[in-house]
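The passage that follows is intended for readers who have already worked through the single-chain material. We present the inputs for a multi-component assembly, then the predicted structure in tokenized form, and finally a short commentary. You are encouraged to pause after the input and sketch how you expect the pieces to fit together before reading on.
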Amino acid sequence: SQQGEEDPQALSIQEGENATMNCSYKTSINNLQWYRQNSGRGLVHLILIRSNEREKHSGRLRVTLDTSKKSSSLLITASRAADTASYFCATVTAGQGAQKLVFGQGTRLTINP
Amino acid sequence: DTGVSQDPRHKITKRGQNVTFRCDPISEHNRLYWYRQTLGQGPEFLTYFQNEAQLEKSRLLSDRFSAERPKGSFSTLEIQRTEQGDSAMYLCASSLAIDRYEQYFGPGTRLTVT
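Having made your guess, compare it with the prediction:
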């Protein structure tokens, strides 16, 4: 079953604007990851934030994590047409050996030129 | 290309037929995962291997599904007596070690059961 929900389910913005996506989850986590999936293609790992971290940056990406609220956000700054994709958050539950990813339902991001 | 590869990329089969998919992980990765993704949803975990040992299976993996990783390298996922509800994208991923949580995904095999 899905871990939680992502909000919004779909987002359409103009090129150059910032995009923010939110993710909520249900269990205690070891870490939370964000993945991107282009239409008809596999998932690409973007960024990982551990449960003891609150914010992380990678290029134009900024991720925050609030474990008290069991939520995370992904900010993409200065969006480009190539950022058009579906974005998924995925959690690794604390204490489980398999380190399997539990995904949200995703946010479909469209960048309009 | 040294990424995760999957074969075939697309498979159309009739209900009741058996199908087998193959995944070749990144060569030094000892962990291999199978996920299933239906349209508009995030991937759902099916099963996981560490080397050749299958260590966890989801309850989504019914008796008609079997997965192997015979020599700790490539893996196969077989679905017997396919049903229309099996239509989905089947994704394989691999990862390196216990403290490296990032997973590297293949392009997937899209299964359509008619």
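Commentary: The two ends of chain B are 33 Å apart (CA to CA). The interface with chain A takes residues 4, 31, 33, 35, 40-45, 48, 55-56, 91, 93, 95, 98, 101-108 of chain B (CB under 8 Å). How closely did your sketch match?
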